[in-house]
């Protein structure tokens, strides 16, 4: 594959006051990235309207108002917001991976959307297991979303945050021969150790899968941190933790990572490196031992209600004997 894909990993702050404000930032970043030649653009985890940072520092009894506000600002798929991003993808001829808080009636989900360069929505997947504090906020996804899709830039797979610590979830995508892995984390969380762990995880996945990794983390300004919680001790949990990076199949950074501030990381992916890596170690091919170890994946969408068969038309349930026939008898 003697081709090159220019990728952009976006590290920016959301608008913590409105979904519309964050969507505007998304559209501006798409335009800026496309002007720099990007063909693939990856945004942070649940960036629209914002990651629920409050859930990391507030006790459950105090989360109600912010949780309800997140419900009000969350994204319905499809909606005007998703159509705006799809149109930007089509207009700019770029593939976009966007993290959103998806509202499905009474539940919220950590959802990843992959838009192809023609504006079509190629994948909507939900994080299979929310992490730690996130379990108070989101529902669980299912195996139907563990899917690699063909796009204008190649075969793209996606996972969110600590899903990368589930080796079987990663292997499900590896076995589908992903060429580019799009990932994202919230950023501005936990502290410096979080960024260090992200780097290790992203480099390891690139090496193990023999694919490129494009990872985007979010960012919070000092003003935003103070707005989330006034306690300086708890504010420490809302700083650092950023590691926006682009990694080769050999585990190397394409360009230096972005660990603080806002910015757009641009890197060129030499797709020949995939074969160069897999020639040495293809973990789902010549280096695999499927007769000893293999993964079984349930790809059925999870449903609260499954209706089997079809209901009979109402008239079939009625006694067709007329009232006059009964009287005559």
TrEMBL record:
The family database entries (PROSITE patterns) matched by this protein are listed as:
CN_HYDROLASE, NITRIL_CHT_2, PIPLC_X_DOMAIN
CN hydrolase domain spans which residues?
5-271
Q: Where is this region: Disordered?
A: 309-329
The UniProt entry, under Pfam families, shows: CN_hydrolase (PF00795)
InterPro entries with a match to the protein in the record: C-N_Hydrolase (IPR003010), C-N_Hydrolase_sf (IPR036526), Nitrilase (IPR023919), Nitrilase/CN_hydratase_CS (IPR000132), Nitrilases_CHs (IPR044149)
Please list the residue ranges that the record marks as compositionally biased, kind Polar residues: 320-329
Q: What family is it from?
A: Belongs to the carbon-nitrogen hydrolase superfamily. Nitrilase family.
Name of the protein in question: Nit6803 family nitriliase
Q: Which organism is it from?
A: Rhizobium oryzicola
List the taxonomic lineage.
Bacteria, Pseudomonadati, Pseudomonadota, Alphaproteobacteria, Hyphomicrobiales
